[in-house]
Design brief:
With 125 residues, this protein is mainly α. It has five helices and two strands. β1 and β2 form a beta hairpin. This is MerR family transcriptional regulator.
């Protein structure tokens, strides 16, 4: 299928498909006229890529995972190497640390806003 149809079927923009290709995540076939030709297995791979990106994994980790999947689908832990799982865990831990810091910053802002509202309210004078 051509890029427009692949875009619709895969639920991503044509630009995303080109980006995935540029990043080495997919390799569509080429027709005689040079147009990209997407087969079903490439679309299945696009669905996996989209899912992994939506879960917050960076492209570098996805690029490591995809060659280990036999058909580009089903990112179950049975087909994933231990090194990849360690990297995903590390990525998750970094996200958790960032979330904790953001929570602390939000709490500090909440405190500031409460105090500022109290200081600015007419009943506080």
């Amino acid at each position: 299928m051509r890029i427009g149809e692949a875009s619709r079927v895969g639920g991503v923009s044509a630009r995303s498909l080109r980006h995935y290709e540029d990043q080495g995540l997919i390799v569509p076939g080429r027709l005689d006229n040079g147009f990209r030709d997407y087969c079903r297995s490439t679309i299945d791979r696009v669905l996996v890529i989209r899912s992994l990106l939506e879960s917050g994994l960076p492209v570098r980790l996805i690029r490591k995972l995809l060659p280990r999947l036999p058909d580009g689908s089903g990112a179950g832990t049975g087909t994933v190497c231990a090194e990849f799982l360690r990297e995903v865990q590390s990525h998750r831990d970094r996200l958790a640390a960032r979330i904790a810091i953001l929570g602390e910053q939000r709490a500090a802002l909440d405190t500031y806003l409460r105090e500022a509202r109290r200081a600015g309210s007419p009943s506080a004078t």
